[in-house]
């Protein structure tokens, strides 16, 4: 069994891996997690399987576990999640769709937006006229705060409107 500073190499790997994982928890950003997991796993294997506690085997374990954890981190989003909880700025709301929960006028109203964040209910103003409760809307101006400017939509897109025009004209 290899030793360094009077301690087994496996124990030192566990300590270093644990320290890196704790540092990652204190300052997240996935800068240290892959290496921390690799060192921790290799150290634990070296502690529990004494035959694997040689420097070359431990180095191979660090490399192998590191590659596996890097692959999992990059491809399965185990660490960074799906992004659903990410903070968004007001510009991200432009084009968002939702529906009116309280009649919207040029001066007041309330809408609920799809994918509008933790609280998807926003104060709203219309461009012109009144939009009745339950009407589908789209955000045309996010406004930079909790008040968005919306416009009623009929659920049809440009293709549907063009087809309707062709049908009326034919």
From TrEMBL:
Superkingdom field: Archaea
Sorted UniProt keywords: Membrane, Transmembrane, Transmembrane helix
Keyword Membrane found: yes
GO cellular component, one term: plasma membrane
Coiled-coil stretches noted in the UniProt entry, renumbered to this chain: none
Record carries keyword 4Fe-4S: no
Transmembrane domains' residue ranges: 31-49, 56-73
Record protein name field: NfeD family protein
Organism this protein belongs to: Halobacterium sp. NMX12-1
């Amino acid at each position: 069994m290899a030793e360094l500073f009077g301690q087994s190499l496996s124990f030192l790997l566990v300590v270093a891996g644990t320290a890196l994982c704790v540092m990652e928890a204190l300052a997240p950003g996935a800068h240290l997690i892959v290496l921390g997991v690799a060192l921790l796993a290799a150290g634990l294997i070296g502690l529990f399987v004494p035959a694997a506690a040689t420097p070359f085997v431990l180095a191979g374990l660090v490399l192998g576990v590191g590659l596996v954890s890097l692959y999992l981190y990059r491809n399965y989003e185990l660490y960074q999640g799906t992004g659903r909880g990410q903070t968004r700025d007001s510009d991200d709301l432009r084009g968002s769709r939702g529906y009116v929960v309280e009649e919207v006028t040029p001066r007041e109203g309330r809408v609920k937006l799809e994918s509008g964040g933790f609280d998807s209910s926003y104060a709203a103003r219309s461009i012109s006229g009144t939009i009745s409760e339950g009407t589908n809307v789209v955000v045309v101006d996010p406004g930079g705060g909790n008040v968005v400017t919306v416009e009623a939509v009929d659920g049809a897109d440009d293709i549907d409107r063009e087809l309707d025009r062709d049908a009326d004209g034919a």
